[in-house]
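Weekly structure sync - notes
Attendees: PM, LS, DV (DV joined late)
Agenda: review two folding runs queued last week.

Item 1: First target. Sequence and structure tokens pasted below for the record.
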Amino acid sequence: MTAHLIAVFVGGGLGASSRFLMSIWITDLFAGRHALPVGTMFCNVTGSFIIGVGAAFAVGSSFEHHPLFRHLILIGFLGGYTTFSSFSLETITLLQNGKSIAAAITAIGTVSLCLIGVTLGSGFGSFLRNQIG
């Protein structure tokens, strides 16, 4: 139990730090172009893709039943990296600031792209698992 808690703690810290840096970088990259929270959207979509890859890759492999992999990467890192609470706050803030179209694009775009990300990631993870054996 202690090892699993440490794995979640370490993974979560690394994921949150990665999200912070990636979000700043992506936001700066698109600065001034629109009102959408592109940094948060990017982290949610890439995190969804990565969890799809990890979950599909683990099936039938030695990682499938290795709880430290699941706790460190899937729960810890990706739990810290993806930002559903930030997404929710930013969407509500857009609505409160009268930017209903940007809020709708953010909400629909994020959910749709995250579902696509998990689907593509899962396919890629299955492909990798089949190639590696």
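Item 2: Second target, run right after the first with the same settings.
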Amino acid sequence: METVHFTQQTFRSLMECFSRPGNQQRLEPSQEITGLYSATVSACLTLLDGEVSFYVANECPVIQSEIRAWTGAKLVSVDLADFIIISADCSEQQAQHALQHSKVGNLIDPQLSATILYEITDHIGNVVHLQGPGIQHTKAVQLNVPEQWLQLREMKNNEFPLGIDVLLINSNSDIIALPRTTKIQEVKQSWHT
């Protein structure tokens, strides 16, 4: 697929996810970067360029150098990063550290916040109920992320318009967005198979 067409298609899918939180979209695979899902690479190639910065939560040198080479984005510390990539092989501590230290913008420029690209596994997770713009009433979805991570996300987003946006990506190239405006109303444990 032609690069411009691919990037436009990926961007439309990402915007659809952010405008309808909890709805799933599938990204087409693009380039391969060892240690990342193909959909994560597609999102990086679409969202990152020489004007933005990024941080890789496990600080893997291969991932860092490949993203720099493909996108031209600047590698920075977690507290300065526009985009934070949490790969599937990150520990829970690395994921929590990345979220704790992510920037939330300021009242003059709330857009100067971080977007988290968080790779999740394909196992059944907890049922969460989402509410906010783009959701008619509430939306129930299953998310395989630790409950304490979801609580930390809520704390980062408690002073709107400040906050972070999260893109959850699985190995099947399915993506779900949790914009800062989306509230998680409750978490119910589900049965794991």
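Discussion on item 2: The domain at 3-188 is CATH 3.40.50.11310 (Rossmann fold).
Action: LS to circulate a short write-up before next sync.
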